[in-house]
Design a protein that fits this description.
This protein is an alpha/beta fold. It has ten helices and five strands; from the N terminus they run H-H-H-H-H-H-E-E-H-E-H-E-H-E-H. Helix 8 (213-228) links the parallel strand 3 and strand 4 (232-236).
Length: 286
């Protein structure tokens, strides 16, 4: 049953009259549930803010959390959720900070001199449930945002573009190359070509477990984009298994230079620049 405005007013009066007791007991319950992950002083400040925002919302705001009167309360709940999500608390640990108010109200109902009917308790617990749902929704949104940001950061870290020689940059690819990652590779490579003015780029696929038609198309698009920027691309890391797969699939790299290793690709580029290179072989003992 929804909390009425009159019921909200009675709850506000109760929270105001027993403010210190409510805040103290609420803080104790939350502190115990979080097992020392936050200090009691910090939790008390959070509880005090929640308590004050509920009183400021008044009976109308508590009866309907979507009303303007409940704006401050919604903001406090959202801030709490976002803070807990960034601190890696679970959704349950976050919700308990709200649901603990139910136990506080039950304790008050059992206290002499406190007039709180069963209907008042049921209506108030319904309000706490709605507050908890609002907290949970904000928590989920925040966590999804954090996960998306972390995935983007990992994607950028997994596609480094490094300068390995004057006029030569390399993109060492590791793992599966999907459309999203291929776009990041292309953007980072083109930006590095602009920043360094390099005429050559080596795309090393030694760490790519398999090359199918889709992966090949991503690589070819990157090569074409680099050529439009005035840079030639060399593909290195063509292992025997990948070479066989490429032949079996009928993939054509056209006039793109391919080498077995990154070292071979670098030698190829240096020769194009007129730099003499030689392969070093270990000395054989007589």
């Amino acid at each position: 049953m929804a909390l009425t405005a009159d019921g909200g007013d009675r709850l506000v009066g109760l929270l105001s009259e027993h403010a210190e007791r409510v805040v103290q007991r609420w803080t104790e319950l939350v502190t115990a549930s979080l097992r020392g992950r936050l200090s009691q002083a910090e939790l008390r400040l959070q509880v005090q803010e929640l308590h004050a925002s509920m009183i400021n919302a008044g009976g109308a705001g508590l009866a309907d959390l979507q009303k303007p009167e409940a704006g401050e309360l919604r903001a406090v709940l959202a801030d709490l959720s976002r803070s807990r999500a960034r601190q890696s608390f679970t959704a349950t640990e976050t919700a308990i900070s709200i649901y603990a108010l139910k136990d506080v109200l039950v304790d008050l109902a059992e206290t002499d001199g406190v007039e709180l009917s069963l209907r008042d308790i049921l209506d108030a617990t319904g309000l706490v449930d709605r507050m908890g749902l609002l907290t949970f929704e904000t928590y989920v949104q925040t966590r999804e945002g954090l996960i998306a940001d972390q995935a983007e950061q990992l994607l950028e870290l997994s596609t480094p573009v490094v300068k390995i020689w004057d006029g030569v940059v390399a993109v060492p690819l590791v793992g599966t190359l999907d459309s999203a990652r291929a776009q990041v590779v292309m953007e980072r490579l083109l930006q590095t070509l602009v920043d360094t003015g390099s005429p050559y780029a080596i795309i090393d696929i030694t760490g790519v477990p398999a090359v199918d038609t889709q992966v090949a198309q991503h690589i070819l698009k990157t090569v074409v984009a680099a050529r439009l920027m005035g840079a030639d691309c060399i593909i290195s890391g063509i292992r025997p298994q990948i070479a066989q797969t490429i032949v079996a699939l009928g993939i054509e790299f056209g006039d793109i230079a391919t080498k077995a290793s990154l070292a071979d690709a670098l030698r190829h580029v240096l020769r194009l620049n007129g730099v003499e290179t030689s392969r070093r072989h270990p000395r054989r003992e007589a």
